Amino acid sequence: MNATTNFISNGLNSFTSTDLWSDEILALWAPIAAYWIYSTFWHFVMKAEIPYFEQYRIHTIGEMEKRNKVSFSRVLCMVSLQQIIQVILGLLVLHPVDPVKCALEQENSLQWWTGFFLSGKLIGLNLSFYLASVVYWIIIPIIQFVLAMIIMDAHQYFFHRLFHINKFLYKHIHSHHHRLYVPYAFGALYNHPIEGFLLDSVGAALAAELTRMSPRMSAIFFTFSTLKTVDDHCGYAVPWDPLQFLFGNNVQYHDIHHQSFGIKRNFSQPFFTFWDKLLRTEMSIKDVESRRAKSTSPNTTKKAS
């Protein structure tokens, strides 16, 4: 009991003694702020029924009210609970970054890369240092970011699919999220707390840890992942939205998974679709359109009658 109390106390002390704008603390609250701000934007768009956005709406408000099996207030409460748990767990494992140690590591890395380029004896010191800076500040973070996206996708695909295959896990845990037959922005993080921890919190932390992201990069990655997840549930297929046209795994792709005909398809989230393609669990938008065309064709209607 004393050990547990000391562990929690140390976590809280590290939080209270750290700047709220420090990178490691930012990684805790920035994704939460992003969720509430971006979800509020899409919620306003949905409620205001702005004509420009209405042409891109996937489902009507009537469908949402009729088909969804959980109240809006319940969604907000469960999301808040998940985020509280997420922050508490983050505080417990938080290790404040030593700025002096961090600066020394940056200096050593820049010196190593400068020496690497100088070893070719083809360029001078200034250009070598410039290239070293480009590698350290741009190329390596980009590689880390992409690798983290791939790792998170793999983690979420296999856990997500497991939650569908296993009847117990689906009934008692994952079915919570599928009470939203018509997804909307605030419902993006509506999960059972166990699922929120295993899929979202562990997946993101694992991706950041395996790619050895800095606290600042982790904050950016966590925030971006949250924005992408909210966008995938926003309910609007907007052609100019970069989170949609840059990714095949977007709001339309994930909406298929929330429908009864696609619930065993499109497990990939939140970035790419290659796991669905590789393991043949993909249902594309064209597949859905073809399915609807067949169901409304004269021959199909005659057979049904």
Report what the structure shows:
- The longest helix is centred in the middle third of the chain and has 41 residues, at 125-165.
- The protein is 70% helix and 0% strand.
- The chain has 305 residues and is mainly α.
- It has helices spanning 2-16, 23-48, 51-54, 61-67, 72-93, 99-118, 125-165, 167-172, 193-210, 215-232, 242-245, 251-258, 274-278, 285-296, 298-304.
- The mean pLDDT is 89.
- It is globular and about 75 Å long.
- The protein is built from 15 helices and no strands.
SSE order and pairing:
Layout lengths: L1 H15 L6 H26 L2 H4 L6 H7 L4 H22 L5 H20 L6 H41 L1 H6 L20 H18 L4 H18 L9 H4 L5 H8 L15 H5 L6 H12 L1 H7 L1
Helix pairs in contact: 2-10, 5-9, 6-7, 7-9
Summed up:
With 305 residues, the chain is mainly alpha-helical.
Q: How much of the residues is beta strand, in percent? A: under 5%
Element pattern in H and E: HHHHHHHHHHHHHHH
Shape: globular
Name the average pLDDT: 89
The overall strand count is: 0
Helix content: 55-70%
The major pleated sheet works out as:
none
Structural class: mainly alpha
Please tell me how large the radius of gyration is.
23 Å
Intertermini distance:
69 Å
